[in-house]
Each structure stands twice: as structure tokens, then as C-alpha cells.
Fold:
Amino acid sequence: MEFVTEQWPPLFKIDASAEVQALERTKPDTIYNVTFGTDLQKFVRESATRGLFEGRKVYGLLTGEPEYLDPLGAESPEGWFVTGYPWYAITDGPAKEFVDAYMEAYPDETPKVDSLVGYMAAKSIAAVITKAGSTDTDALLEAFKDLKVETPMGEITYRSLDHQSTIGAYVGTTALKAGKGVMVDRSYKDPDPLHAERLRNQEDAPGGLISDRLVRRLSRRRTVPLPARTERTLWVFLLRSS
Structure:
């Protein structure tokens, strides 16, 4: 595998024509796309006009999320391998209960990824405060280690190594149905528990230390300055060519 080029357009300021031409010049076999929002809309529209996706595999992180797929409407790309949130295809269990409860509470809306993540974040905050018995920073740091939280996606754990959760992701491919984009051939992928266990057992791993420092810093300040390059690193294309 060879990575033949990368493109780093400014966030929400994409020059889609220039980006598509630059990508086409490299003749990639596969495109990895992480644009979202209005950048994704412009990129998809320009690429369709110029035939960039024809005969190529496209992997689109986030593209299957309703926040970004719904606005594309009939212009939604087909056949992309994506992560997302196919709420309309969930038929049972706590995940379905969440969808039903959300639509009952907000009848004029459909659930989005942010709806789900926001709900799980609130439950996690409540769980860690309950476990810690206080809002003291050190107590919260300790309580987050192997914290278990029941969510619509099942039980998740915040790893003691780095305080990252073990929530999985829906993966599938994009398709057009009734003039709108949807995810098909979809499934929910749990993280590899054996991999998580190997990480947990690593000694002197830096991740936990980094996590602790970040939590301490956030507890002292309302905002944390981002690196100057953050605006340009939120999105990247990685291409390969045979």
C-alpha cells in the first residue's frame, strides 16, 4: 500500500474544485474522507460532477451520521464504507428504546449521533460523580478508572489506562432510498475486548498520564487553547495507488 497524497483544506472553507483536481491528479485507488458538514456537501457535489468517485473505493469517517448524511439528500454518495448512526434500522433492545423515547420527546426531530453521545455523556458524568462521592478532581480521576456505565449501546467501561470508553461504532455502506442517504449492510462493532485488556495490562503506558494531566488542566480552566494547526488537522485525505 502506498499513500500518494494528502489534502488539508481549512475547516469549513474548502475549495472543492481545487481539492478534487489535486486528488484526481494522483489517480488513487482508494479515498479516505473525513470532511463533514458543509465541506462534505461541497466535496461530494464537486466530486460527482468531475467523476472522482467512479471506479474507486471511498471510506468516509462520519459520513453515515445523520447530521451529515441527511443534508446531502438525493446527492448522497452510494457505496461508501462509513461509520454512522442508522437509528431508522434499530429494531430492539435499549438502543431502540432510546430512539423511541427521543422521538416521543421531540416528535419533530429524528435522533442524531450527538443526541446519543450527549445522553451517554450525561449518564457518564452522573455515574462518575456517584462513584467518586464528590466533584473533587482527584476523586473523579480515580473514579473514572474502569467506570462502568449502562447506555443504549450496552454497558461501556472507561479504561483505567487512558479514561477512554469502550463504546463501539456502527459501520456499513451508503445507499440511496426514497431520495435520501441511508446506511445499509450495517452492523454494530464492539471494541476488541482482548485488545482493551492488553492495553490495560501495559506498564508505564503514557496514555493514562496524559489523560490525568488533561483532566487536571480542564478542571482549572474553562477553555484549553488548541494547537495552531488544529484547524487544518481536523480533516485529511489519505489515498493509495497501486
Observations:
- The domain at 16-240 is CATH 3.40.50 (Rossmann fold).
- The chain has one domain: 16-240.
- Residues 8 and 236 are 6 Å apart (CA to CA).
- Confidence is low (pLDDT under 50) at residues 203-215, 221-242.
